[in-house]
Every structure is written in C-alpha cells, then in structure tokens.
Design goal:
It is built from 7 helices and no strands. By secondary structure, the protein is an all-alpha fold. The chain has one domain: Up-down Bundle (Four Helix Bundle (Hemerythrin (Met), subunit A)), CATH 1.20.120. The radius of gyration is 18 Å and the shape is globular. InterPro entries: DUF420 (IPR007352).
C-alpha cells in the first residue's frame, strides 16, 4: 500500500478532500438526513461544543510541539505530534458534524453589532481556513506517510507542512474564539 500510494499522493489528496468536504457541506447544508443518525442524549449534545473546545486547544499544543520538534531535528517526535494533531482534528470534525446533523447549526445569541462585526468575520475566516487546510493537510500527511523518513526530505512535505501547520493553528484558534462567543460570552 505504502509503495503504491506514494505514486498517487495528489490523487489521494483530491479524493480524500472531496469526500471530507462533501461530508462537511452535506452536514451543514442539511443534506444528511437526521433520521439516518442515531440521536444521543441532550446532555451529550450539549457537551460536544465544550469537548471540541478542549480538543482544539490540545490540537494547538500538539501542532506547536510538532513544529518545535521538527526544528530541533526530532523527526520521530514531530511525526508523533502531527499524527496526534490529525487524530484530534478528525475527532473534532466527527463530533462537530454529528452535532450539526442532529441539531443544526447554533444561532449566535449575542448583540447584533457583535454578530456583524466580530462573530461573522471570525467565523468566515475560520471556515475559509478550515476548508483550505483540508487538502494541504492531507497532502503533507500523505507525503510523509507514504515514504520512509529518509525520502520525505526530497519531497514538498516541509513546504506544505509549514502551510498546513499555519492554517491549522489559525483555524483552531479562531474556532476557539467562535466557541467563546457562542457558549461563554453570550
């Protein structure tokens, strides 16, 4: 698998990105029928945003640790942190999509001026970066996972990895700002 996949990183990236973004847009736009998903209790549904805020915060830490490790030349630890970051991202996404499919999106409860001038721009940038980072993260991850470490240095992994980490960090931070606006401040 590793050898065959290494020759098709671009195609795999495209396929995974299309599937992932289709699921996200399908959930947000209501294309996934609620009846197709088993319903959790209200307590579980209420807990998901708080759990996701914790997941996002941990992901910020693991991404930063991964950056630090690669700068120190600690490649195995870098790989471990970035795979952990990806697992956190996937967990966040599954929980978020589940909540959206079952309950729909959350309305902003605060004042209209904060909604227009703080919440919406923050949410829009967060969403745009999250969408852009999907193929970039997949590409960097697939370049690294389909090759021995000695061969990764001869690829575009470092260039795409820096971009992926930057987009991921900003998106996770802005996601936490959205969480604070929706569930803590208002």
């Amino acid at each position: 698998m590793e050898f065959r996949a290494r020759n098709h990183v671009g195609g795999l990236t495209a396929a995974l990105s299309v599937v992932s973004l289709t699921l996200v847009f399908g959930a947000v736009l209501g294309a996934i029928p609620r009846a197709a998903i088993p319903h959790a209790s209200e307590e579980v549904l209420r807990a998901i945003p708080h759990v996701n805020a914790v997941i996002s915060t941990i992901a910020i830490v693991t991404i930063l640790a991964g950056i630090r490790f690669v700068r120190r030349g600690e490649i195995a630890r870098h790989r471990q942190m970035m795979l952990t970051s990806f697992a956190l991202f996937a967990t966040f996404l599954v929980l978020y999509l589940y909540k959206v499919v079952v309950q729909g999106t959350t309305e902003f409860p605060g004042p209209e001026t904060i909604y227009q001038f703080v919440y919406l721009p923050t949410l829009a940038i967060h969403m745009l970066l999250a969408i852009i980072c999907v193929p970039v993260v997949y590409y960097a991850l697939l370049l690294a996972m389909t090759r021995p470490i000695s061969e990764v240095f001869g690829t575009d992994h470092a260039r795409f990895g820096r971009l992926a980490a930057s987009l991921w960090l900003v998106s996770f931070v802005l996601g936490n700002v959205v969480y604070l606006l929706l569930y803590v401040l208002y």
